[in-house]
Design a protein that fits this description.
CATH class: Mainly Beta
Helix content: 10-25%
Radius of gyration: 23 Å
CATH topology: Beta-galactosidase, Chain A, domain 5
Number of domains: 1
Strand content: 35-45%
CATH superfamily: Glycoside hydrolase, family 65, N-terminal domain
Amino acid sequence: MRRTILLLATVALVVLLVGGVAASQQLQEEQSTSSLSSDNKGDVSIQSTTVKASFASGSGANFLGVKVSNHGNLLSFESPANQEAVFGGREGYALCSNNGSTTNGHDTGAVEGGFGAPTFVQPTAGAFPLTVTRNTTDGKFQLKQVWAKPDATEKDITVTMTLTNRSSATIEGVLMSRSGDFDASGTSNDRGARTNDSAWLWDDATLVSPPGGLMLTALTFGTSHSTGIETQSTWVGDGTPTNPGSRQACGADRVNTPTTAASDFTMKVLYLFGNLSAGQSKTVKFEYGRM
């Protein structure tokens, strides 16, 4: 009888341990996949609000503060002090092919799709420089962003972006854009303008005191590029498949500039790479700067 009781107790203990291990493994699997969208085949779906690198220098009119997320989004550009230019962390990038008709990946903070989880190179935890590398989930592209240490004197920051064709075939009509919903001088009503190389949003002395602005520039002049100022509603869209917003694409629905009246605008810079052969990479630079 004692042997039977002991045997039954041993079996029960084994079952309990096996069940506990299985439950633990299931919990770990659920936790590791909870940040992945089941609708997007592994796309990271959590908003990119985690600060991965930050910088602050100076004070008052000489202040510069910059923050970048773990997905490579500009989360904050503050200069001078108390004049935040990035609205709600809504800044980011998009990769397209077939001359813009196919979006392979996009991430502008609250909205993203087509990218896997990032990997990092960061010599000093929490600080610049910061390298963020991501692959598109369709297996076609690798995107590496290198955010340099902000320039405290010139009040700007540069991000170098290298796009590589990971597939075994040529990808045609490749484009890459960087854009965002910015509020110059901390106000949503701004004026906008652009040249062939730069787009900027600003408030003059008739709108706010002190006046200020933010400029986005294409620094790789030898690669074809364009710029655009768009309305906030065009950039955001309504989230439907027929109107996802230009934030999820590489083109731009431009307004005439300089704008005649202040409104809620966004800005974008677009590089046109043409065709990328298998294994080919192209590198370009963007700069955000106080104006």
